[in-house]
TrEMBL record:
<dbReference type="GO" id="GO:0016491">
    <property type="term" value="F:oxidoreductase activity"/>
</dbReference>
<keyword id="KW-0560">Oxidoreductase</keyword>
<comment type="similarity">
    <text>Belongs to the short-chain dehydrogenases/reductases (SDR) family.</text>
</comment>
<dbReference type="InterPro" id="IPR002347">
    <property type="entry name" value="SDR_fam"/>
</dbReference>
<protein>
    <submittedName>
        <fullName>SDR family NAD(P)-dependent oxidoreductase</fullName>
        <ecNumber>1.1.1.-</ecNumber>
    </submittedName>
</protein>
<dbReference type="Pfam" id="PF13561">
    <property type="entry name" value="adh_short_C2"/>
</dbReference>
<dbReference type="InterPro" id="IPR020904">
    <property type="entry name" value="Sc_DH/Rdtase_CS"/>
</dbReference>
<dbReference type="InterPro" id="IPR036291">
    <property type="entry name" value="NAD(P)-bd_dom_sf"/>
</dbReference>
Length: 252
């Protein structure tokens, strides 16, 4: 069944949608008849996504750390597609370094991409959504904001900020018909994570032993949660953070 508005087809933006969790979200949206614009930096991956998802998928090559270009980016999307119903802020970068070795530049780089760019993009998209009197924004956080993980201080700071922003945005925007929620994935089996864990059996055992469900999630688990938040099933849900982690964040 297509998720359609009264004026026709829904239009979604998914950042970082050409790989990993974002790719699974785009797949879920397209399967459900949502026209989806994928924003990413890797042209090769964008082309592959476009080929895989067909006519309902459009791709834009854009580096979201270019804050000055974001207003024009959103304007051009709104002009081309006529509306924006859903924004999924999925794009983000990580850096693994001992706390004392993280430079100011390192820290600022993560904050720029993972927080400031999301703020700027959301602000511009909200300006499109406000006259529509409806919209859904889904932010992607991480288990790093739920509890302490070593060697990812900047990433942790960024994802904690995203959860706070989710609540602040929800309180301000929900009276205007715009819902804002957040998904916090746990250990999800992607190419990247599988490689990391398979090369480190001790870490893999630790992950599985403190995950009550005893297994890794799959990208579709995260996509299902994002789709719920983005569509009518969650029409009375705003300002929440949903861990999709097999119980990891409450496990012992």
């Amino acid at each position: 069944m297509n998720e359609n508005t009264t004026s026709g087809q829904k239009v979604a933006i998914v950042t970082g949608g050409a790989s990993g969790l974002g790719y699974a979200v785009v797949e879920k949206f397209v399967q459900n008849g949502i026209r989806t614009i994928v924003i990413g930096r890797n042209q090769e991956k964008l082309d592959a996504a476009k080929e895989a998802f067909g006519d309902l998928c459009s791709t834009i090559s854009f580096d979201l750390s270019n804050l000055q270009g974001i207003p024009e980016l959103v304007r051009s999307i709104a002009n081309e597609f006529g509306r924006i119903d859903i924004l999924v802020n999925n794009a983000g970068i990580n850096m693994k370094k001992p706390f004392t070795e993280v430079t100011d530049e390192d820290f600022q780089k993560i904050i720029l991409t993972n927080v400031t760019a999301i703020f700027s993009l959301s602000r511009e998209v909200v300006n499109v959504m406000l006259p529509q009197k409806q919209g859904a924004i889904v932010n992607i956080s991480s288990m790093a904001s739920q509890y302490g993980i070593p060697k990812v201080i900047a990433y942790t700071a960024s994802k904690s900020a995203i959860e706070g922003m989710t609540r602040a945005m929800a309180v301000e925007l929900s009276p205007e018909g715009i819902r804002v929620n957040c998904v916090a994935p746990g250990f999800i089996a992607t190419d990247m994570s599988a490689k990391a864990l398979n090369n480190d059996p001790e870490r893999k055992n630790k992950v599985l032993s403190r995950t009550p469900m005893g297994k890794l999630g799959v990208p579709a688990d995260v996509a299902d949660a994002v789709y719920f938040y983005a569509t009518e099933g969650a029409k009375y849900v705003t300002g929440t953070v949903l861990p999709v982690d097999g119980g990891n964040s409450i496990g012992f």
